[in-house]
Amino acid sequence: MTPEVVVFGTAGYAGQHLRRARALHDRGEIVLAGACDIREPSEEARALLPEGAVITQDAAELLARTTPDIAVVATPPHTHLPLAKLALAAGCHLLVEKPPVLDLAAFGELAELARNGGRACQTGFQSFGSAAVPVVRAAIENGEIGTVTGIAAAGAWIRRDRYFARTGWAGRRRVGGQPVVDGALTNPFAHAVATALLVNGTAEVLPERTAVELYRARDIESDDTACARLSFAGAPDVVVAATLAAEADHEPYVLVHGTEGRIRWHYKTDLVTIHDRQLPVAPPRDLLANLVAHIRDGEPLLAPLAATRAFTALVEAVRDAPEPLPLPAAWVRAVDTGPERHFVVPGVDRAVDTAAERLALFSELTLPWTGAASLERER
Question: pTM for the complete prediction?
């Protein structure tokens, strides 16, 4: 069986999904049957579709004009659930871009619909397909760093005005009264959160307590600088710190703390360091190819929806948190002009690293720009 695949979305990161699907199509592993987008697809997106593929503005029309086995949902986050439900009703297996859903109620609904329909639901956390995952897990299980005492993740990037102008939902907490939950931890550094939870072995477990601190250097609804601590029964805490107001771009990483050392994994470049020893890691597995192998041969999913349960709890906590705290003007500096303008918080790069090193929230580091931005919830 050669499964047919359709892609919901053609712009932004959906273009990456089209490229990967076209590569599998050219190898004869799938048939890329079509794509849809409410906007006119770019010439580049059109060129990625094979001759005869369907292009529409409406997902229902795309599903009616094709016979897909798999639907890739790569649209704005607040549209994931309704489009996933539409695809499931048409009998499709799913690959849903991150964040797959925006709260635990939606998570439960999507999981139940997929389970009742006998459909697989893969999520777009590419780091879950990394060969570093079993390497890091084996090092932990073999006691190479002693007892794990906590897991952190850190990310510091520059994001310019053009980044926030790319879509109508960028930098928004809600659109038309509907939650979107864009923000440092829930979108650009969602991989940092989800990957740390995966390494911790608590990806499928609801945290007992979640504390979040949201700040913003620029005049947007959502946070561009944030941290969180997720606490679990019988497992170490996970602490994540991130900013989009960095002084320089840095490779994000997961840091595993142990009583006898640390493991550092730069999850975008798959560089794994245990103590001072760097380990070779094989190339990552493509998640669409893995989904095809799961359907055809029963290969286990690398990024199943179930493995995003704790991450979704964090998204929900960010959604329900107080509005992000504006950082004091004295601690924010504008750099460049026009679409290249970006904002810098001096010292924030080091603050992100220190939070990861100490498993601490920003407010616990007595930074001069922190305030009452923390929300802690218990389950």
Answer: 0.95
